[in-house]
Amino acid sequence: MTDNELIAKFMGGHQNTEGRWYNVKPIQNGKNGYLLTQNFKYDISWDWLIPFVDKLNNTLYDYKEQFGVIPLMNEGYSDLDDVPVTSGIITVYETAVNLLKWYNAQPK
Fold first, then answer.
1. Cβ atoms within 10 A of the Cβ of 1, count?
2. Of the candidates 28, 25, 33, which has an alpha carbon nearest to the alpha carbon of residue 50?
């Protein structure tokens, strides 16, 4: 599964057996009612990335409140709020994906 597919799944999207994604957030589905993976723009569009970052931040906050644990990533960021506002989209995207992978690996 690609990083963008991990995000789409986290955001509530689901994929059928033909590889078409439905209910991909935050953007409405394509004119045929679905999107293909190559049409995801989480890694190149702030309009796609920021709703994911917001949901992930809220999810991680809730997890930390419940379990008292949050990761320290390689860059030293333990929260997406720690990423400098001057960071480019790739830094934010990569940090968020790493946090999502960590979260997905945790017992719930």
1. 9
2. 25
Asked whether 39 and 63 are in contact (CB, 8 A), the reply is no
Lookup result for tokens 């004119």: 31
The 10s digit of each residue's pLDDT in 33-54 is 678 888 899 999 999 999 999 9
C-alpha span between 80 and 24 (Å, rounded):
22
Instruction: Give the E-state strand segments of the chain in sequence order.
Output: 14-15, 21-22
Residue whose C-alpha is closest to residue 85's, from 38, 55, 46: 46
Residue 100 reports pLDDT greater than 60: yes
Enumerate residues 6+ apart whose C-beta is below 8 A from 92: 49, 53, 80, 83
Contact 102, 71 (CB under 8 A): yes
CA–CA distances in Å: residue 97 to residues 12, 32, 52, 89: 16, 28, 10, 12
Delimit the domains of the chain by residue range. 3-104
Of 59, 108, 106, 104, the closest CA to residue 80 belongs to: 59
